[in-house]
Write a structure and sequence with these properties.
The protein is an alpha/beta fold. Helix content is about 45%, strand content about 15%. Bound molecules: nicotinamide-adenine-dinucleotide (NAD).
Amino acid sequence: MKIAFIGLGNMGGPMALNLHKAGHTLSAFDLSADACRKFAAEGLPIANSAAATVDGAEVVISMLPASAHVDGLYFGSGEQAGLLEKIPAGTLVIDSSTIAAATSRKVAEAAAKRGIAVIDAPVSGGTGGAIAGTLTFMVGGEEADLERARPVLEKMGANIFHAGAAGAGQTAKICNNMLLGILMIGTSEALALGVANGLDPKVLSEIMRRSSGGNWALEKYNPMPGVMETSPASKNYAGGFGTDLMLKDLGLSQENAAAVRASTPLGGLARSLYAAHSLAGHGAQDFSSVIKLLQTKAN
Ligand code: NAD
């Protein structure tokens, strides 16, 4: 299958590579020349522009940071024409970015008028899941379009859920990430407390992982440097899931909560803490670096 892949960041790059290794014919693009160079060196065919990737593509996949990037890509911005004008009718578009459900619905509705099918398919599983091809996809859109996408999604993920109509994948994703944002702060707070009392963070992490405090952050993404070799904490919080991306997701969940009049007090507090952490200059670091806000000076 010929696949256009746009957005080769921490997630998109490894996802595109998995499709390439599975034997699909890829044409990939990122606005960052560094990202293009990095994945070209790993064998990914790189096009000169997003528009050039869609020539002859049966499936178009985008993996961009936020709503504004997805809006700009599909509807155009400034001099740049929107990709929807270039994509032939009959093509399937899979947008895996985490964005506002309203933006997903806007893209899906405009595309449908041109005979292009769109599903929103945000992911969970982190950069480790993207590399291993074990992501969880949360899909919004028509069931038939999900079935068309399934063989492609299966090369990048291990779990595929149909959350509902267009935008529903995004709603599921912001519920999940609100919980993840809260869990990472709670986990960091508990670890910082233990360490301030002289406990070994490796031992405390193992105790809590196997006790009632066990959660994904302790299993896969320990925020304390040196506890888990593979976590961003042990790589000076480089790569992974940026604090500013978590802040964006918590903003989306709070906006949504206001719209449907849901009560999300911990989501609101978590958003304020990540905002303070970002303002302190840590926006580009992995979100688990939020532990720095909670560590005593002795740590
Ligand atoms: P990233 O910032 O590492 O990568 C995004 C890439 O998109 C960048 O390389 C950027 O240059 C590129 N880009 C932006 N606009 C573009 C355009 N118009 N055309 C081409 N390229 C463009 O972000 P990421 O960590 O890969 O995350 C991507 C999305 O996935 C975000 O919505 C994020 O919230 C979500 N997500 C991330 C993780 C994670 O662990 N990093 C996990 C799940 C979901």
